């Protein structure tokens, strides 16, 4: 199996574009695997933008998933103290 590079460590995203008839749900699963393989200190938004530039296929479900991933790549904010424990 061919390994990827720093942008696509396992080559999962590139492989998804080669699969005929791949579904949106399958692409989401592949994206999750990709996200887990990316180092914690990596700028995931920059990596996603690089992947979109590398794979300019507008009508592919992975392109949709990657585009949605850009919106979700903002770091989570944690509220500490009593505000974080309120229901």
Describe the fold and architecture.
It is a single chain. This protein has one domain. Helix content is 54%, strand content 0%. It contains 5 helices and no strands. The mean pLDDT is 87.
Q: Give the CA-based shape.
A: elongated
Q: Spans with pLDDT under 50 lasting ≥5 residues?
A: none
Query: Which series of helices and strands comes N to C?
Result: HHHHH
How many strands, which pairing sense, and closed or not: the largest β-sheet?
none
Average per-residue pLDDT, rounded, comes to 87
Roughly how much helix do the residues carry, as a percent range? 40-55%
Output the keywords.
0% strand; single chain; mainly alpha; 5 helices; 87 residues
SSE topology:
Layout (H helix, E strand, L loop, with lengths): L11 H5 L7 H14 L6 H11 L6 H12 L8 H5 L2
Helix pairs in contact: 2-4, 3-4
Question: What is this structure, in a nutshell?
Answer:
The chain is mainly α and 87 residues long. It is built from five helices and no strands. Helix 2 (24-37) packs across helix 4 (61-72) and helix 3 (44-54) packs antiparallel against helix 4.
């Amino acid at each position: 199996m061919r390994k990827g590079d720093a942008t696509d460590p396992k080559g999962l995203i590139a492989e998804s574009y080669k699969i005929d008839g791949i579904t949106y749900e399958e692409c989401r699963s592949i994206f999750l695997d990709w996200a887990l393989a990316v180092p914690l200190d990596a700028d995931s938004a920059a990596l996603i933008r690089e992947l979109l530039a590398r794979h300019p296929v507008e009508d592919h479900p992975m392109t949709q998933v990657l585009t949605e991933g850009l919106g979700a790549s903002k770091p989570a904010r944690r509220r500490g103290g009593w505000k974080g424990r309120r229901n």
